[in-house]
Amino acid sequence: MNVLVFLIPIALFLGLLGLGAFIWALRSGQFEDLDGEALRILDDEDDKPLKD
């Protein structure tokens, strides 16, 4: 039972830390342009052939 005295505050702290990281990501624009990032990998405009 004494272990719960340590585990509950640690779990609450980690949960709040994760929530804070998620809110920070929302406010900094991490989720603004999901389609642009997905299509960027298909753009081969800057690809150059390798020299042998």
Keywords:
0% strand, 52 residues, mainly alpha
Please identify the structural class as seen in this structure: mainly alpha
Shape: elongated
Largest sheet: none
Radius of gyration: 22 Å
- Helical residues, percent: 55-70%
Given the structure, what is the number of helices?
2
Number of strands: 0
Task: Average the pLDDT over all residues and give the rounded result.
Answer: 86
What low-confidence regions span 5 or more consecutive residues with pLDDT below 50? none
Question: Kindly, what is the distance between the CA atoms of the first and last residues, rounded to a whole number of angstroms?
Answer: 67 Å
Order of helices and strands: HH
Relative strand content: under 5%
Question: Could you please describe the fold and organization of this structure?
Answer:
The structure is a single chain. The protein is mainly alpha-helical and 52 residues long. The protein has a domain of 34 residues. The protein has 2 helices and no strands. The longest helix has 26 residues. The chain is elongated, with a radius of gyration of 22 Å. The N and C termini lie far apart (67 Å). The model has no long low-confidence stretch (mean pLDDT 86).
